[in-house]
Amino acid sequence: MIYRKYLWRKLPLFLIFGTACAALAGANIAVCRSNRDVQAILDRVGVLDTRNGQIQRDSEALQARLAEVKEHVPARFAKLDDQEMLLWGVDELKQHLPGAALAFTDIARGTTESKLAMDLTLDYTSYPLLLKQLDYLERSSFPFFRVRSITITKELPTKVVCKITGELTTPGKGGRDR
Question: What pTM does this model have?
Answer without folding.
Answer: 0.55
